[in-house]
Structure formats: C-alpha cells, structure tokens
What does this fold into?
Amino acid sequence: MNERIEKAYEHRPKDWIWHLTIAVVVVFLMLWSAGSMETSGTTTNGGRMALNILKGIVNPDRGLLFNLTMQGVPYLLLETICIAFMGTVVGAIFSIPLAFLSASNLTPKPVAFIGRILIMAIRTVPAFVYGLMFIRVTGPGPFAGLMTMSLTSIGMVSKMYIEAIEDLDTKILESLDAMGLGTWQKIRYGILPQLMPNFASTAIYRFDINLRDATVLGLVGAGGIGAPLIFAMNAYRWNEAGSILIGLVVLVLIVEWISTRIRVKLTRG
It folds into this structure.
C-alpha cells in the first residue's frame, strides 16, 4: 500500500511550472498597470478643499434637507427612486421574453446564439453613454433616465434570467412534453412558477444598482439628484452638497435593508 502511494506521489502531475508562470504574468500585469498610473499630486488648496467638504457634510443645509418643494432633497430623492424603480420594472419585463429566446435548453441553438449576442451588445455600452444618447433623443429630464435604466437593466437581468432558466430540471420539461403541452404552455404552467422567486430576486438586486446609477445619470441631465449635487459642488456650496449626500446615504441604507430582507425571504421561502 505504501509503495503504491509513493509511486503515485512520484508520478503526480508536476504543474508547478504552470503555476509559477501564471504568478509571474500576474505580477507583471500588476506592475505594468501601476506604472501607467499618473498623478498630478495634491494642489495647494487641496487640503483646505477636503476640509470644506467634510465641514459641509457635518453641517448640512437643513433648509434644503427638509424642504418639501421640488427643489428640496426629499423630492429629488423621490424622483431618483422613481427613475430607478420604473427602469427596473421595464427592463425586467422586456428581459423575460429575451431570456427565454436566448436559453439554449428551450430554443434552437442558432436563435439562442443570436439572442446572447444581442444581450452582450447591450451590456457592452456603459449607462453613462446611454444617458447621453437618450438625452439627445428625448431631451434632458427623468424620461431619459428611465430609458437608460431600462436598457442597462435588460443587459444584466437577461443574463441572470438565462442562467436561471438553463438550471431548470430537464425532467420537468420531459414530463410536460409527455402530457402534450406546447412551448408556451410549458413556460406558463411548468417553468414560470419555479422561476418567479429567482426572477424577483434578480430584479430587486438590479433595483439596488439602478438606484446608484440614477444618481450618476443626474450629472448629465437625466433627472434625479445628481445634477443638484454637481452644481452645489461646482459652486463650492458644501452645505448643500452635504445635505444631498446625507439624503443619499440614508436612502441607500433603507433600500438596501428592505431589498435584502425581501431577497432572503424569496430565496428561503
């Protein structure tokens, strides 16, 4: 027994050269990436600027923070939530048929391949670029942000939906075939009831991402709270910037807590 173990140990795959090569390549890439980074250093007023930002966050403009008009933080946060929520809903709805058409276990492989290429193309373009494109088409405002969130959601949500569909037990599909059900009947009565918890969890997770992206899209005029934030920072109104940042932090924490509880509930039943 010991002789066989020693013999197997002597003839074990000697892949240390391969591991060493990978380590050398990774170290080289890290050094090369670090060498390409350049910094202009800290400006003369950099420390003072950072101190002003901290003072603005610690001492926010309470008049703006609790202002219930259209210029106040609560309304701007509500607009941001609406953009993220509607963008998620529209994107999730359009992702369902696209995911089913792109699932290789339900549709012919050529059709699934075309669907995956389309999804990949949608995911390639950043949300910031989509925002600039839609602003040119629809004009600045929340609708441009809604269209951007919808399109970017399709790229990610469709991919997650495809993975959930392809992980289905094939025996269920075989039993439905034996009953003589058509394709849409199988989807309606045998597949969707199993996929809905996974679909809902994915949509909630995407809503968390869209909430942060909607803030950034406001910088290009696509609605939300991003535009007032950048205007306040450019005008050195740090108290207003602090009020907006505090509102964002509180909003993200609340939404994150609620969405996490919902996802756990959907996952564990």
Remarks:
- Residues 183-217 form the longest helix (35 residues).
